[in-house]
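Run: sequence + dioxothiomolybdenum(VI) ion -> complex structure.
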Amino acid sequence: MSPAIGTTLDRVDGRAKVSGAARYTAELVLPGLVHAVLVGARVASGRIVSIDTGAAQRADGLIAVLTHLNLPKIPGTPKLLPSLAGMAAPGQSYFPMQDDVVHYAGQPVAIVVADTVERAEHAASLLRVDYEETPSKTTLDQVRDQAYEPERIFGGMLPGRFARGDVEAGLGQATAQVDVTYRFSANHQNPIEPSASTVVWDDVHRLTIYDSTQGPTATQLTVAALLGISPTQIKVVSEFVGGSFGSKAMIWPHVTLAALAARQVGRPVRLSLNREQMFHSCGHREEQEQHLTLGVDAEGRLTALRHHKLSITSHFDDWAETSLQSPGILYATPNYEGIYRIAKGNTITPTFMRGPGEATGIFALECAMDELAERIGVDPIELRLRNFADTDPTSGRPWSSNGIRECFQRGADLFGWAGRDPNPGTRRQGRTLIGWGVAASAYPHVAPPNPQRARARLYSDGSAVVEAGVSEFGTGVTTAMTQVAADGLGLPVERVRFIGGGSDLPNITAAVGSAGTGAVSAAVHLASTQLRDELVGRAVADAQSPLHGADPGAVSVEDGRMRLRDRPDVGETYAEMLSRQFTPDVEALGVWTPPPPDPGYGLHTFGAQFAEVAVDADLGLIRVRRMVGVFAPGRVLNRKTAHSQLMGGMLWGLSHALLEASQMDARLGRWANPSLGDYLIPVNSDVPDVVVETIEVTDTVVNPLGVKGVGEIGIVGSGAAIANAVHHATGRRVRHLPITVEDLL
Ligand code: MOS
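>> structure
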């Protein structure tokens, strides 16, 4: 029996998803279900003066109109912590509908409940809310003069400033510099399935929340904290999630509001956000700019790197996406300074978005490196090779695994980089300008701070079920965990069923920051190998077993049959043994303790990105013709799902570079394009064939299987490779995203 890990097993949930058998949160049918609709504030700053509910109250099918005047106050205080901390993780430390104050457009001001969703929407449209509006500030330009340096960011988990050496002295030694600022539009994650919660209070006051979430346990703990009840009273179920990309990493207020509404009306309640509400209700990648100063000596070695990020955040939280981690360790410069500055505006607290932070941070750094390479006349790959940090420059410690040089080597071969003409704007095919660009990719390896658990149970028919609370939002984790458990137990994948997506299952941290698969695979591996060891132990201790008295270390399991390694004819199946022993099932709990914050190694994932673009010389239209990405994500559990994740990330980098922008209407303080018609994303005809490869690196530090994750790394650097290719094609350096036709006219 060959190992299941590393094969291209099809998605075990694929048939259910494509046939419509999979039930998403907003599709669940429950007896007595009623429908809640959120009403968001029309203004971005001010006070509610009056709410006229009369017409809404008279609407057909109406059950309740809840506002700050009649909704019970929440007893808990939200405290912002990222969900990977494993604790309660509200998206912001402000909870709406507690008073008449409005801090941002779309902030919930009322909940309308009716018997059907259409009637709830109609009644909500009849609600008249009057505001006393005060001036709002919603763009970076409006608030930049009030920017400050926060002591800590990321819910207090990271400092607001990082430094080593002396940047001024390093710049003094430089023979060439670049000093550039890159600007980034705000972005929204836009998963296909909008957030939804279906909430049921039962007779014994236990709350069941069906929720579209990246972290069922985070949802349970957050709602418990906000409602002031015990987590034992809350069960969260999240079986299928239709994408998330960070928008469902934190537990936003609508979930708890749905629970409050359900308690209030005494019926099961469904609350679905519509597409427009998704732009106002679950964070976004904040509008930001990044200022980089790079100094280089005559040998092309970086003498200094200064990286300052300025972004707009909410009035409540010092949140900025952490953009400085990967750029701070990619290159071995001894002199480095990274500083976050933020300014408060009238927005919801920003949040994670795929490749959180590092996607913009590496974009800025890798474009600046391209500018530097051009300035000093060195090939962009050669400049990087001279500067890659071969040990973690923050600690001097070795990397647990790296592989970036091999990624560049392989990528350059696949792409054919060697033939590149260094001069920009020189390759023409008719009216089309052709350009090639390259960028490094990097993402921190995030270890959850707390133990991760999974449970494996083998039944006497020889089939196994393995459970952990991880959420499946399209990554393929259910499939990969089936493979991990099959190998751990010595079973074929058909005899293993993996169940995730619930807070009653063994606790796994919310799947964020590419940490999900590493964490859950570690726990599943431990649970399944411990269960195998226990079963083998039962066999060698059983006088009636052919394996009686054998050394357990001399027994292996193949296809559900335990046998002596050197005499495969001697043995018996799990099923034979358990039936004889009158044992219906055997179970093991795997508990994985992640590496400590300082494990003696630098933990990071690396890759290399290449792109070819064709730019219409007259019209400025950019087509991406080719993309090559080579990554070193450690052990690949499922080649197909990992490839898809990496490709999806790379294409999102294309989208980030050329299309996506959440446009703020500063006059209204609202997003101006909150729909999939107006928020541009690529379609199939916009994207080229994408070559994705992984190179093998063995990592014995990060977790038992050496999994470093593939969720984020694909997007990091792919936008920079495209932007650098646009420069190479046209000679124009566009220092803001997205790069559009207008920039190239
Ligand atoms: Mo992921 S964007 O860290 O939820």
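>> summary
Residues 516-541 form the longest helix (26 residues). The pocket of dioxothiomolybdenum(VI) ion is lined by residues 214, 245-246, 249, 352-354, 356, 512-513 (CB under 6 Å).
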